[in-house]
Amino acid sequence: MNDTAAQITQLLSRLQGGDNGAAEQLMPLLYAELHARASAMMRRESEAMTLQPTALLHEAWVRLQEYSAGRETTYTDRTHFLRLAGKVMRNVLVDHARRRRRRAADEPLGDELAIAIGPGPDERADVLDLQVAMQRLAERDAELEEIVELRFFGGLTLQETADALGKTTSSVHRAWELARAFLLRELKKES
Q1: Cα–Cα distance between 11 and 136 in angstroms, integer?
Q2: Are 42 and 26 in contact (CB under 8 A)?
Q3: How far is Cα 135 from Cα 191, in angstroms, rounded to an integer?
């Protein structure tokens, strides 16, 4: 473990112990990585999405702090924290999409709430439809849903995901492809 990773783990331990100052020290260490992940998520969004990567990151950070303050949270390491951060960013996007949908209930939304789930133009999905498909995936296979969380929303590589789950890279790759196929199939049912 390098010095930064050890420092992050120590700060996470202090944060879950109730040390609010740890969050202030942790943010600069993780900011660039979290911002890159938020930017990657937003690149998959349609251009009409009004939420910016920095706003996504900051909203997620506030939610993570609120989440940590109210319960016994155990962050084992940087990867575990990033996994949770990815999940929180996904929830921020879903909440944002729901608010936009409520505000524009009488207006056609077109593609503004779409998110790219694959490289092809036909692999875009409404954020809220993706949330429903993710719930169906979780009901069918919680491990596949966790892999999507880590890869798609957490921004982890195949190797990082495999390490986090204690699996081989090839098994995670197969599961990732299976999960993507399931989600695409479910999303096509919705459209």
Answers
A1: 36
A2: no
A3: 17
* CA distance linking residue 154 with residue 86, whole number of Å: 4
Q: Which amino acid is at 158?
A: L
Three-state SS for the chain is: CCHHHHHHHHHHHHHHCCCHHHHHHHHHHHHHHHHHHHHHHHHCECCCCCCCHHHHHHHHHHHHHHHHHCCCCCCCCHHHHHHHHHHHHHHHHHHHHHHHHHHCCCCCCCCCCEEECCCCCCCEEEHHHHHHHHHHHHHHCHHHHHHHHHHHHCCCCHHHHHHHHCCCHHHHHHHHHHHHHHHHHHHHHHC
Which of 178, 168, 176, 143 shows the shortest CA–CA distance to 159?
A: 168
Query: pTM for this structure?
Result: 0.63
Mean pLDDT calculated for residue range 5-12:
84
Q: Which two tokens stand for residue 90?
A: 């996904």
d(CA 18, CA 12): 10
Q: In this predicted model, what pLDDT tens digit does every residue of 138-156 receive, in sequence order?
A: 999 999 998 988 887 777 8
Q: Which two three-digit tokens encode residue 28?
A: 């600069």
Please, what's the largest Cα pairwise distance for the chain? 54
- Which tokens go with 29? 């260490």
Encode pLDDT of 83-112 as tens digits: 888 888 888 888 887 777 766 554 443 433
